[in-house]
Amino acid sequence: MIPAAFDYKRASSAAEAIALVSEYGDDAKFLAGGHSLLPLMKLRLAQPTMLIDIGRITDLSYIRDAGNHIAIGALTRHMDVETSAMLAEHVPLLAHAASHVGDAQVRHRGTIGGSIAHADPASDLPATTLALGATYVVQGPNGTREIAAADFYLGFLESALAADEILTEIRVPKMNGAGWNFQKFNRRAQDWAIVGVAAWRRGSESGVALVNMGSTPVLATSVSTAIAQGASVADAAKLASADADPQADNNASVEYRTHLAEVLVRRALDASS
Amino acid sequence: MSHVNELTARGRTQPPIEGDCIVQISVTVNGTTHDSDVEPRTLLVHYVREQLGLTGTNVGCDTSSCGACTLHLNGEAVKSCTVLAVQADGQQVATIESLEVDGVMHPMQTAFMENHGLQCGYCTPGMVMASISLLNENPNPTEEQVRLGLEGNLCRCTGYHNIVKSVLACASAAAVSGSK
């Protein structure tokens, strides 16, 4: 399978990438690691006429301690998130979730920012950063703005990023010793989750997000509210799908996904408590 | 641009359409630097196989699932069906053909041979390249780590047991020679 023809430009900075996308408009797409975009282009589900390669913007690849949060450059590869000692110490849920993305070859190329900007509800890192209450920093022609993860995902593969904006940084609050767990249910190694759960808990505080339970990653706020009000894990988990809108596909019916979400939320919160 | 016509004649790509641009790239493959003209949409696997004639790297699923097209980009295993040749511009690529030196196989190839780590052989170049990358990152993996580390490579003969055995044998052989 070969993508439809396109033109190619390589940007050496975020500012250059924004200038290029402003010039070429809606038919241009950013190319980071390419592990979400290129498969779509090979299937001709996406046919951009211009690819702006941002994969060489090395100053957007970093993991830094920024006090109460860890700042991750958007072009940091999954493998670097997975193996970061700083993340293992301060945001172990994210490092662990990154190790579940695809396979080693995919993690050598794919980037955290690419995965988030792609906004696939079946991907692991959008939901994980949502559970963690992350903030995304985006840069556009008029400067930078911050978007809370909870406000970022608007629809299937659709985010609050404007066409001429680029995701530059992911800010993830430190977990400060909270319990955590990541559940990914799939039938084949390296596959997307049929349903996945990213969860953390510190006493009555918790964050729970669902993978592949709707057209966007889903923050299970009903579960966290129940936990805050003193519900047992088993009772809170019954609300797993309250905020979700699961769809049927070849892998699972709506009923199956709903059941799976309850079971996986219960397991994740039991392990986090 | 001759390659474009060549490939078109063989029916491997669509004829260039209006607006097609050709990009010049310089890629070091197995130690030799190649200056080539490519269409931006040329996949790295097609570039090494069809433009450079290095057919040891196989195309399997063509959907970044099976790992048959695994080669090394800057020393790390990647699936070359999901990398554009232009993304390898200025980078180092190593394919299965780079492993044998002066008639001597790479220790991983030897380990696959000695442990019957291949049956039909189709997945083998990708398995070997992925396994070398795995040991570069984790020289002494457990069996579970090998199985997880190779999750991106499928063997349709289902010969996983001996593949895992081969990688573990290569790791312990390296550990033994390293301790001498």
CATH topology of the largest domain in chain B: Ubiquitin-like (UB roll)
Beta-strand segment tally of chain B? 5
The string of secondary-structure elements of chain B, in order, is HEEHEEEHHHH
The portion of residues assigned to helices of chain A is 25-40%
Give the tally of β-strands of chain A: 14
Distance, first to last CA of chain A: 47 Å
Beta-strand content of chain B? 5-15%
Shape of chain A: globular
Summarize the structure.
The complex is a heterodimer of chains A (273) and B (180). Chain A has 273 residues and is an alpha+beta fold.
How would you describe what is shown here?
The complex is a heterodimer of chains A (273) and B (180). Chain A is an alpha+beta fold. Chain A has three domains: 47 residues, Uridine Diphospho-n-acetylenolpyruvylglucosamine Reductase, domain 2; 116 residues, 2-Layer Sandwich (Uridine Diphospho-n-acetylenolpyruvylglucosamine Reductase, domain 3), CATH 3.30.465.10; 94 residues, 2-Layer Sandwich (Enolase-like, domain 1), CATH 3.30.390. Chain A has twelve helices and 14 strands. Chain A has a five-stranded antiparallel beta sheet. A four-stranded antiparallel beta sheet of chain A has the order 11-12-13-14, with helices on both faces. A three-stranded parallel beta sheet of chain A has the order 1-3-2, covered by helices on one side. Chain B folds into two domains: 97 residues, Beta-grasp domain (Ubiquitin-like (UB roll), Roll); 73 residues, DNA polymerase, domain 1 (Orthogonal Bundle). At the A-B interface, β1, α2 and α6 of A face β4 and α4 of B.
